[in-house]
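Q: What structure does this chain adopt?
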Amino acid sequence: MSSTDVSSTQPTAGPGRRERVVLLAIAALLALLVAWQRGALTQQAPLEAMARRSPELSTALANGTPTVVEFYADWCESCRAMAPAMEGIERQQRGHLDVVLLNVDNPRWQPELERYAVNGIPHLELFDAAGTNRGRSIGARSGSELEALTAALLADQPLPELAGVGALSRLEAVPSSGTPAPIAPRSHG
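A:
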């Protein structure tokens, strides 16, 4: 056998097995770094996950199902503390009660923030099956309080008497007696 025959059976020169493994490891590390940077590896916050599953507000108010609308923010400690109870209610009452989450930091919801006079969070707006606003709840709620509120909506009963929960009052024309009534913040005609 000649020396030229032996060299033709040898693999061609190029990166060795070790170099290929190192390059693959670097590529995998870079892929993980890019995925982490884009948020693909971070677990979604419960509030964000529920908001993504929420029906559109207009759909929820028109589908014949009672609705709880929560105005929240990811940075709100009280909102995050209520999240597990809200998620439990959403899961247990799916198909019987709509839970809609609207992030106050999202400019998309500015008309709703103004319409429902949201000036603090957590803020719940409570609607019956006909889409009629039954009242609101302002401030943090315990799991049992949230269950009581949703049970009242589901049973079409008055909302429970809890601090920070109330029905909305309607403005109605007051018959004039000829003398205009003084207008003050606490005037009720």
